[in-house]
Amino acid sequence: MSFNIALSGIQAINEQLNSISNNIANAGTYGYKAQRANFSSMYAGSQPTGAQIGSTTQNIALTGGVLNTGRSMDASIDGRGFFISKTSSGQEVYSRVGIFTKDGSDFLVDSAGRRVQGAKLTPGVAAPGPKGDILVPTTTLAAKASTAIDFAANLSADWKAPVGTFPAAPTAATPPDPSTYNMSKTTVAFDTQGVAHTVTQYFARTGDASLDVTVHTLVDGAPALTGASTTLKFDSSGKLDTTTATNAITFAAPPAANGAITVDYTGTTFQAGEATTSTNVADGYTTGQYVGVELGSDGKVIAKYSNGEQQAVGQILIATMSNEDALTPVNDTSWSANGDVGTITESNPGESVAGGLAIATLEGSNVDITSELVGLMGSQRNYQANSKVITTENQMLQSLMQAL
């Protein structure tokens, strides 16, 4: 009996050594969760018959260290939760390994080639789409005509009225004389075909003591079709009269379908000192080619284009469980759900109980090498002790046989 008991101990220790060696081997594996072999005793009725490994558990809740990678498609979860992926057979798996890339079919996939699950985002549409595979569009980004120019500046109250008269019909070949205005600012805007146009605003104080500033607007050096001239009015404290805070212009040059561009002067002041511009930007853009994809800290998948535009095309979801320790291992860094995990909640990163994302980082293994080496030495001693039991029993049997 003691021979079998010692043999069962050796077999159990061998299984424990498998777990320890697997932990040590995966000390550098991203998202790896250390295993632990749990011993349990065996009985035949009331008689002990040895030991066995009753279960093997992973310390899923304990996070590993965060490692900087510098790669914009890497992400670690700061807190609870798992990335969601779907295998080719349709099974959903959960992982803490945030190594993502775009596959040959333009879908976002994880390091195992499984399609990452999230919501589709459509530019201009507030509501996200249903949960599913995230497709990264690599087609040409169509041009978008400019519809608004945001402009904010301090127009100097120290200006004197220009001595010259602003020309009625300037051209690109004969631009306005500097004596006819106090300041000019140029903005690049786009028409419906994505062609860039220069929108130049010339600011001129209407009188040395006046609180009004006239703005002459030229498009590609010629007066705008409409809104070529407007007047900004200020009160005695230099604040802009809101009734004069916008100006609608249209291009005189084709295509005529471009429509109006609204220049918004909100935030513009009329104070003494240097004239400074804080905002001068138009919306719209020219045609762009897909150049890459990256992740945002909010979990958005952002497609980048050659025209400098970036568009959120997907939203990665984070899954949390009320009993994550009940997850079933698919491999050492991925798990599947079963009925014991409780309620599964899928949220955007940082929402509800889901952890936020740290971009360009990865979660390392949670293996404690020191503890594993201590466990390894303990297993070695236990193995030797059980081997000694077998050796002793063998010697006793030999002595018995010789005595017979």
TrEMBL record:
Domain of life: Bacteria
Cellular component terms per the entry's GO annotation: bacterial-type flagellum basal body; bacterial-type flagellum hook; cytosol
Domain Flagellar basal body rod protein N-terminal: 3-33
Residues in Flagellar hook protein FlgE/F/G-like D1 domain copies: 77-140
A Pfam family that the UniProt record links to this protein: LlgE_F_G_D1
One of the GO biological process terms: bacterial-type flagellum-dependent swarming motility
Keyword terms, alphabetized: Bacterial flagellum, Cell projection, Cilium, Flagellum
Entry-linked Gene3D superfamilies: Flagellar hook protein FlgE
Domain Flagellar basal-body/hook protein C-terminal: 362-402
Domain Flagellar hook protein FlgE D2 as annotated: residue spans: 167-285
Subcellular location: Bacterial flagellum basal body
Family: Belongs to the flagella basal body rod proteins family.
Function comment: A flexible structure which links the flagellar filament to the drive apparatus in the basal body.
Name this protein carries in UniProt: Flagellar hook protein FlgE
Organism encoding this protein: Pseudoduganella buxea
